[in-house]
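Handout, page 2. Input:
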Amino acid sequence: MIEGVFKEGFVTTSYDTVVNWAKTGSLWPMTFGLACCAVEMIHAGCARYDLDRFGVVFRPSPRQSDLMIVAGTLCNKMAPALRKVYDQMSEPRWVMSMGSCANGGGYYHYSYSVVRGCDRIVPVDVYVPGCPPTAEALVYGIIQLQQKIRRTQTIARA
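Output:
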């Protein structure tokens, strides 16, 4: 990022638009499937919903990913692993919390071993509600994240 060098004008605004357009068309999520929500996430990647048409290609490594989809119940023992995987992702990175269990503990909210929302471990950009959320809800969440990315500024202004 170039901070304080350019004032807001045509060139920097156009640059922001092009860069954000490229980011929205090439989201590469790393799956962090922990429970039944992962099945719906896999369903969204198959032929009927085809996330590839949005530029979403699942990657096996956090170093190749810029989006983490946390799908399912996050327990206390898994929380450090989630943070470690998040830290291995390169900037810019985004997190999507998928399902009631990942959002706030869900059915297991009062269990001693469950983290009451993955936002206590990593910063979350988009929440997808449901138990389990449908593949359509995940697609809608990805579209919401793409709109959020389009609104960000790449070049920081002074």
